[in-house]
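Hey, resending since the last one bounced:
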Amino acid sequence: MLYAGFLGLIAGLVPVYIGLAPLWIFKRLSVGWRTGLVSFSAGILLFLFADVTHEGVELSQAAGSAPALFALGLGLGLLGPVAITHIRRWKMASQTPALPSDASSTPIVSAKLFTAQMIALGIGLHNLGEGLAIGAAYAAGVLGLTNLLVIGFALHNSTEGLGISGPIASTNTGARDALILGFLAGSPTILGSMIGSLAYSAALGTLFFSAAAGALLYVIVELVKVTSTPEPSKIVFVGMVIGIVLMFVTGLLVR
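The structure tokens again:
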């Protein structure tokens, strides 16, 4: 089980941090390039949403699972971030500290960081399902498939790390925030690998993937609202296409 967790570490947590590493470079980009980066993040999320929805629907039809589990996971994944958002807004409204001199920009920074946290949460749920696949292949003794999954998911997850950077590229977030975001997104792969090595469950896979679909759907809507800019639509379109194509190419390695 420990070795399965190590495989999850290599396939999930480490690549996400590698993808987050260029964040300090992204902060130095112009407004136009940062807009392209945000659009790139949206493209990654759109691909992930379609991917986890497809995986969840397929697993819901397997033995030991049911379509009702997919509906349950989707609802939990969608309503969870909504509940967190309302609790966060209620706490912010109930607190009335003295406002700093740059208070006008603080809510914007906070909103973008929160969006990045929700992105990391959605990706983490998705990686939990990926970890199940790695653990199941390892438990079955299929070494070639296990290695292929680890390599493919590692490339895939490094791209996801880049996607988390989009909303916070224009903020003053520090290394601590990046470490937390990477842990939220990548560490569930370790847990999923350990669970999958003990007992693979189509029902658990259905719940994880459908919950990820719901969380990603929420994040996509919030990303459009929080990071909308008057930049030319060509930049937005190109960024989204690059994100989708890159995820598709890396995803081919684990099909």
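The chain has nine helices and no strands.

Sorry for the duplicate.
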